[in-house]
């Protein structure tokens, strides 16, 4: 990061110099949101933008997916989040000259995302061409308390002269309305150019998306409302304005279907400020008429105005104080890192806090990347943070999956399975993944959701959720595994359960048999389902009866799930001493990442999928993720061997990878490497490391940053509901502190080089149904108990194993497959530039170094 422009500050993201070169990036970095409503960090002038984004979680349009070749069961209807009308605009003119930040002469400039206050501010001192010295301040917040509310305030003071000042507030439907300059909406005029080919961007829709319904003005209030053309959803935006000034002014208005203006013309006296406050309310719905939404919005604003603007900012700050009290993670002595960590945690709050039962889009509400879809990112990457800091947010997210069960059941049936199959990507519960190989085939989503249910219940003890809703998820997903898999008898006459034709988390290898991650996670899923069914029969007979009836469950099904789990095939290669990613993974050639030019990354934008699929090369952690999530089923030696094998094959082309690699590197002992991956994740957006932060923040990675801190360096595990710690504090860090909510208790954990301290308090709003007074936990295998109001310190003898450097391809180079062939690494040849290569049967490069003959290529 350019630290002159973005100085390190532990609580604030500060920009001291604006630039239009990277507006896309800064729009994302300075975005505000509350999980329901999101606003990119566009300046209020409303001009130069990468994307004038305002998003409402779940507000989407549908469109027919046009497959080049149709086949039965392909997803047919696409879904994409749409831009809600833009309420951010508050244009300033002095002497009728616009404040245009690309050309204006600024004497002072500072933009701040204050994460303690939950407010975006911008301070500017502008010297106009005619010599007026003008101070312009902006404050903007998207309320965490009132999820439909945003508040923004602009203050203008001409310091050295009297001058006419205009503050022009607008609501604009940019989605498909013409903007005030007559230009068409960005979607219509410039379909997201490389987007056509970059699967990480949103779909562009050419037709008009928002059909105007009701629009009017009354006093200083403006209203626009719409119905979404195909999805039928409705949305209303309402703005109220207040002006506060000792100067004379007039207020003017204009209303059309796609624009509402409230314009204040002020005769400003030198040194006399003008402040305009804009209260904005957004409501959207799947079925309620737009008119009704307008009424709701009026009520939101009536209340907010009575409470007043100061109250809103105070409430926001109080909300943030509570959030940080239960969620902060501190690394002593490094402001830059602390800033990055807090920025990531703040993104998690902004993406989830008031989603209130809607999902968590891959980019939160900071951009339209991945079309606003919900993926497994939520359950595996974001929910651990929610579960351990604000459990009811986790429950809300899980309830979203519960409510998707009817659609998931239909989808399972369409794919000839029993139970339920959750969509790989979706907004409304239906599968929206057009590319089934790297989409629908990721059946592991079922186990990921179940895993998150298990984690939530273990951490909270929320049996009511488990017995009434969670169990439905566990049973229906287990049913799918039971029919998807099948039995074979192996050479030792043992019956083995296999799962074929699925894709694991690594999207550079698709539709394979016995993907290790899937099998290991499905095993968890099957066991979790049978356990809860049996437990309910024992402990909750009423809920049990209701559940048996509701799900039409035969008790014998639970036996079948146990049998499948116990006989689950877990691929293992004796020859290499590792777990193959799937049944044929090791047969492939090894992609030589160490000799792949930087410009060929990410591989997905530079190679046909078939080229990639032919190689041992990973987009993201797969086996290595299983080693973490199901770590109690692998030995320390297995983890080390698997990590050594897969790390040099992992591109990290998905930002979901680095955090997992960091956690496993820390566990097995690669200390420097763990820190390197951690830095990559913590700064992935702040430094735009994947060059697509302009499409939105990488929310899963942000969640992973929390997990890497708490479970990677902090060493926390919760396998089987037992809390344990085995820390790996980096030598560079004096201490690491984090908070955990565990069964109604608030734990404060601090790790130093020599000890770990766990302090406990009763949580203010304990989620557990049986509040407890103490917590048992293990530190490196030894049990301890901490009581509420007390703390326990345990000395640490070092920080686990120490390995230097990192695993490399040359470690693989000597390895042999089961069939006696040696592994060799290569990069796909570009025949366009080199012509037809002469292949002699041997590729003489391993790890970029010529190797001795005995080690070459195929061994006969
Ligand atoms: C990753 C998926 C992820 C998606 C959305 C893709 O690049 O491979 O695992 O769910 O991004 O974040």
TrEMBL record:
<dbReference type="InterPro" id="IPR008928">
    <property type="entry name" value="6-hairpin_glycosidase_sf"/>
</dbReference>
<keyword id="KW-0328">Glycosyltransferase</keyword>
<feature type="domain" description="Glycoside hydrolase family 65 C-terminal">
    <location>
        <begin position="716"/>
        <end position="763"/>
    </location>
</feature>
<feature type="binding site">
    <location>
        <begin position="619"/>
        <end position="620"/>
    </location>
    <ligand>
        <name>substrate</name>
    </ligand>
</feature>
<dbReference type="GO" id="GO:0005975">
    <property type="term" value="P:carbohydrate metabolic process"/>
</dbReference>
<feature type="active site" description="Proton donor">
    <location>
        <position position="507"/>
    </location>
</feature>
<feature type="binding site">
    <location>
        <begin position="376"/>
        <end position="377"/>
    </location>
    <ligand>
        <name>substrate</name>
    </ligand>
</feature>
<dbReference type="GO" id="GO:0030246">
    <property type="term" value="F:carbohydrate binding"/>
</dbReference>
<keyword id="KW-0378">Hydrolase</keyword>
<dbReference type="InterPro" id="IPR011013">
    <property type="entry name" value="Gal_mutarotase_sf_dom"/>
</dbReference>
<keyword id="KW-0326">Glycosidase</keyword>
<feature type="domain" description="Glycoside hydrolase family 65 central catalytic">
    <location>
        <begin position="342"/>
        <end position="707"/>
    </location>
</feature>
<dbReference type="Pfam" id="PF03633">
    <property type="entry name" value="Glyco_hydro_65C"/>
</dbReference>
<comment type="similarity">
    <text>Belongs to the glycosyl hydrolase 65 family.</text>
</comment>
<dbReference type="InterPro" id="IPR005196">
    <property type="entry name" value="Glyco_hydro_65_N"/>
</dbReference>
<dbReference type="InterPro" id="IPR017045">
    <property type="entry name" value="Malt_Pase/Glycosyl_Hdrlase"/>
</dbReference>
<dbReference type="GO" id="GO:0004553">
    <property type="term" value="F:hydrolase activity, hydrolyzing O-glycosyl compounds"/>
</dbReference>
<feature type="domain" description="Glycoside hydrolase family 65 N-terminal">
    <location>
        <begin position="15"/>
        <end position="286"/>
    </location>
</feature>
<protein>
    <submittedName>
        <fullName>Alpha,alpha-trehalose phosphorylase</fullName>
        <ecNumber>2.4.1.64</ecNumber>
    </submittedName>
</protein>
<dbReference type="InterPro" id="IPR037018">
    <property type="entry name" value="GH65_N"/>
</dbReference>
<keyword id="KW-0808">Transferase</keyword>
<dbReference type="InterPro" id="IPR005194">
    <property type="entry name" value="Glyco_hydro_65_C"/>
</dbReference>
<dbReference type="InterPro" id="IPR005195">
    <property type="entry name" value="Glyco_hydro_65_M"/>
</dbReference>
<dbReference type="InterPro" id="IPR012341">
    <property type="entry name" value="6hp_glycosidase-like_sf"/>
</dbReference>
<dbReference type="Pfam" id="PF03636">
    <property type="entry name" value="Glyco_hydro_65N"/>
</dbReference>
<dbReference type="Pfam" id="PF03632">
    <property type="entry name" value="Glyco_hydro_65m"/>
</dbReference>
<dbReference type="GO" id="GO:0047656">
    <property type="term" value="F:alpha,alpha-trehalose phosphorylase activity"/>
</dbReference>
